[in-house]
Amino acid sequence: MDSTERPRGPRLEWTVVAGEGTIGGPLLLAATPEGLVRVEFHAGPDRVDKMIGSLVSRLGADAWRPPPGQEVLLAEPVRQLKAYFAGSLKRFELPLDWRLSSGFNRQVLQELDRSVPYGAVVGYGELAARVGQPGAAQAVGNAMGSNPLPLVVACHRVVENDGGIGGFGGGVEAKRGLLALEGVLPQPLF
Predict the structure, then answer these.
(1) CA-to-CA dists, residue 49 to 43, 46, 65, 88, angstroms
(2) 145, pLDDT greater than 70
(3) Under 8 Å CB-to-CB from 181, ≥6 apart: which residues?
(4) CA dist., res. 133 & res. 84, Å (int)
(5) Which of 109, 112, 92, 90 is nearest to 101 (CA)?
(6) What is the rounded CA–CA span in Å between residue 56 and residue 74?
(7) 14 near 64, Cβ under 8 Å?
(8) In the structure, what pLDDT confidence band is assigned to residue 91 with cuts at 50, 70 and 90?
(9) Residue 188: what are its φ and ψ, rounded to 5°?
(10) CA gyration radius, the chain
(11) Is 157 helix (H, G, I), strand (E, B) or coil?
(12) Nearest-CA neighbor of 156 among 106, 118, 102?
């Protein structure tokens, strides 16, 4: 999947962002001409081919990984992600390709993106009420688990109504780290 030839048909550009300051290990980023379509945690070499294969199949696009620093569709997402981890970006301003989410899940994720800013949290039940489905807290949890754009559509900001941290696809420690970065939780001592 690490093709150096630019595709001729519908295109999916991807890269892996790793390094200083990232939380949750290496991150896979993928974009189409419509916008950022996927962010995936734990993007080690053993998982990347599987992740890209799945995206190619679902989107009907040819995958292309440009050389580092020569991204086209991903240049701005990479820049903004680095600024977020450096603490200088509070809101991602990126075009998003929502094709990997639909129905209730998309409605919940779009509400989350629109109404829960950096440094704030919302309960699963409260988010369910915001989309007109009070009592659908568990369904909101499922929507968070299916989020194709974690970090950018900040599902780490959704917590349990009783004050618990809740789950997270990138792992609970990554969720704690992201909430600490945003000032919601204290920074870990070690």
Answers:
(1) 10, 7, 12, 32
(2) yes
(3) 23, 85, 87
(4) 32
(5) 109
(6) 17
(7) yes
(8) very high
(9) -60, 150
(10) 16
(11) helix
(12) 118
Distance CA 82, CA 92 (A): 11
CA distance 127 to 189: 31
Side-chain-side CA neighbours of residue 141 (13 Å): 13
* CB-CB contact of 125 with 15 (8 Å): no
Using CB atoms within 10 A of its CB, is residue 148 exposed (0-12), middle (13-18) or buried (19+)? buried
For residues 149 and 67, give the distance between their C-alpha atoms in angstroms, rounded to a whole number: 23
What pLDDT, on the 0 to 100 scale, is given for residue 98?
A: 97
Query: 14 and 8 in contact (C-beta within 8 Å)?
Result: no
Q: In the chain, how many H helices and how many E strands? A: 6, 6
Is the full-model pTM beyond 0.70? yes
46: Cβ–Cβ under 8 A, 6 or more apart, which residues? Answer: none
Summarize the chain as % helix, strand, coil (round to 5).
35, 15, 50
The residue among 99, 88, 83, 87 whose CA lies nearest residue 32 is 99
- Within 13 Å and on the Cβ side, how many CA atoms surround 147? 28
3-state secondary structure of 38: strand
* pLDDT value of residue 68: 87
Tokens of 64: 């292309």
Catalytic positions, written as ranges: 155
